[in-house]
Specification:
- By secondary structure, the protein is α+β, with helices and mostly antiparallel strands.
- The protein is built from three helices and five strands; from the N terminus they run E-H-E-H-H-E-E-E.
- The termini are far apart.
Length: 83
C-alpha cells in the first residue's frame, strides 16, 4: 500500500510518502488510521483529530468504513478551504 501525506500531515509525520504493509486485520480506512496512530508519536499527533483529516483511496474521497487493500494508494491531508 502506498501512503501519501500532504500539508501539515506531511510535516508532522516527517514524510511525504511511503510503502507500508499493514496487518491482515486492517481492511478499512478507519482501521488503517488506527494502525498508523500506533506507529509512533509523530503519527499519533498527526492523526489525533480525525475530523481534521481527509482520506482519499485511489484518488477518491473515502469514509472510515470504506475498504483499503494492499495495492491501493491512500492519501492523507487536511480539509481544503478556498475563498
Amino acid at each position: 500500500m502506498k501512503l501519501l501525506y500532504f500539508a501539515w500531515v506531511k510535516t508532522k509525520t516527517g514524510r511525504a510518502e511511503e510503502e507500508v504493509n499493514p496487518p491482515a486485520g486492517v481492511a478499512t480506512v478507519g482501521e488503517l488510521l488506527t494502525w498508523l496512530e500506533g506507529r509512533g508519536p509523530e503519527f499519533a499527533d498527526a492523526l489525533s483529530d480525525r475530523e481534521a483529516i481527509r482520506v482519499a483511496v485511489n484518488q477518491s474521497f473515502a469514509k472510515p468504513s470504506d475498504p483499503v487493500g494492499p495495492n491501493d494508494e491512500v492519501a492523507l491531508f487536511p480539509p481544503v478551504t478556498g475563498g
